[in-house]
Every structure is written in structure tokens, then in C-alpha cells.
Amino acid sequence: MKQLLLGTTALVATGLMVGEAFAADNTVKLGFGGRYLGAAGMVFSQDSDDDTVEDSRDHVFKQDIEVHFRGEGVLDNGLTVGARIELEGQNQSGDQIDESFAFLSGGFGEVRFGDTGEALGQMCYLVPSASSMFGADSPNFNFSNAGVNGYGATNGTCYGIDDKATKIVYFTPNFAGFSFAASYTPDDTEDTRNTTSGFAGRNDNNPGQFSETWSVAGNFSTDWNGFNIAAGAGYSMANDIELPEGLDDDSDDVTELNAYAQVGFSGFTIGGAYRLRDFNIDSNGLGFVSRDGENQVYGAGVTYNFDPWTVGIGWTHGDYEVKGGSDSEDENHDDFVATGSYALGPGVAIDGMAEYSDYNGDDNEEDYNAWAAGLGLVVRF
Fold this sequence. Notes:
By secondary structure, the protein is mainly beta. It is 10% helix and 56% strand.
């Protein structure tokens, strides 16, 4: 047994030395990073006719954790090549890997291939917030229960259509402050790999799944006389939902528009953002809901930094119009959020927020309003 252990130890040591030797010869070197977000929240004075909301717990703990692996190196011809993988610290969505893509960059710009955001989602700005976890626009954490009554628990201006589906994205170099991006996604499927049976490609009859998403975005940013200015817009379009032959799919499409502007000066950042999603989806008897309409979200915010503190206020308004058959719903959601952040050190901060959420539906049973507060820790590594 002792001899076996010694032999095994020698093999492991040899393997490690060989691995280190190969790693030392590689152009691409591995680095690590990531983030930890954790927060506690309380909901006060909830007012809703929905018993599900009334019976909900008034406090909650939340976490959002990612570990990032990034390999990067410079080739002899000057090109930078690498890959990035983001590992989720939780698996509540059933998807352990968030983003995973390879990239190649140089004087021509940068190309990314893999599971990553579309051009619109990569370049958009949110309504300013003092916190990196709380806010009135697409927050990591919110504590409103408005989603039980209506369209969603929060408003967002920067989502895109296909999230982290496998795609190709191109970013131009910066031209006097201007930069652009474009992306193409065959279908909104992540974690694409080879198969041992069936289609070597992918069946293009995917009921309920958008196909062939194109996305473009542009941004202008500059520093001028003590002002930091940024503005831009993006547009995404999914051609259709692919359906079996013989079924009409001419009306199945979705488009999304995003626009934003920000200006910073003397510690202040002021800005606004806008999102319009237009969708027209027909079930064609395939078992998913027919609906069409528009979702429109807009908002504004301001922050002020006086080291180590940053404070801010923000507001977003969402109009959600959904039509299904003869039914029609027109709902709206206002979210007012005050945020604050105290930097304990580089990459470490304590964030807080106070929020008022007001949701109004077509029928009184969908109305909801509440106050909420949250306190959390941000650790970036």
C-alpha cells in the first residue's frame, strides 16, 4: 500500500510538473476575477387585493455570485486572443455557466464568439444609480412583489431579446469617441455543442423560440471641459418564430429599441434611458399564448459622489400593453428608488436603498403599491 501511495504521489507530481511546463509555454495566461453581491430586504405597507401578496413574507435575504475565468495573451503578430467563462455561484435558474465566449482583438476592433449578450445589451447604459445592486432600472436585487399582480416586479431599459444565446458579436475601434457593435444569433439557445444523433445543425422548427436575431448599437463618449458625456442607441430584431411547414408565421416577430444619455460633472452624474419592445406573436394552435402589443420603459436619475460616499435618486415608468385574442391589458408601473453606497476599500462597498413601487392594472385586483428598503455588501475580486 505504501509503495502504491508513493507511486501515485510520484505520478501526480509528474503530471503537475508537465502541466506547469505546458502552461509556461502557452501564449494565453489564465486570470481570475468575479463578484459577490449579498443583501437583506424589507417590504413595508404593502397594499394589494391579491391574497398571494398579502400572505408573502415581509423580509428576504438574497445573493448573486459569479467567478470569472479569463485567459488572454498577445500573439507574435500583435493580435490579442483569449476566452472568458463566468461561473454562477448559485444554480437557481438551472444554468451554472452565465457567459462563455472567445475573443480576438486588434486594430480592426474585437470579435466575440460564444454565449454572450447581443450588441444592444453590451453597449447600453442604465438610469444612473449610486449602487451596483439596487436601482430603479434593471436592478440585480429588488424587493417589490408587484410581479405577482402584473407584468413584472421591476422596470428595465437594458435587456435585449436573446440574452446569452450563442452568437457572434463585432465591436469597432473607437473613432473620435464613436464606437459601434453588431451581432447575429441563429436562435436563442445557450450551451450549444455537438450532438450524437438527430440534426448536426439544429431543427429550425422551434415553436415559441425567436430565431435569427440581428442587433446593432452605437455609442458616443467624450470628456469636454470637465464634463463626461455619453449617449447612444441600439436596435434588435428577431425575424420570426420558426414554425412547422404549412403554418403561417408571417406575424411572429419582436423588435427592441434602446436609447440613453448621461453627463457627469463635479461629482454629479445625470442621465436617462428609454426602451421600446414591440411584439406580435400568434400561437397558430401550437399551445403557446397569442399576444401582441408594446412595452415601453423610460426613466431618469442623478447621483453625487463625495468619496467615499455616493448617493442618488432614480425613477422609471413602464407601460405594458398586452393583447391576447379579444382580451387587452394596459398596465403601468412607477418605481422610485433612493440609493447610497459607501466604499470600504477598492472593490468593496456597502450599498443601501429605499424604494416606492406603484403598479396599476386594468382591473383593481392588479393594483399594488409598497415601500421597501435594502442593505447589502458588494465584493469584487
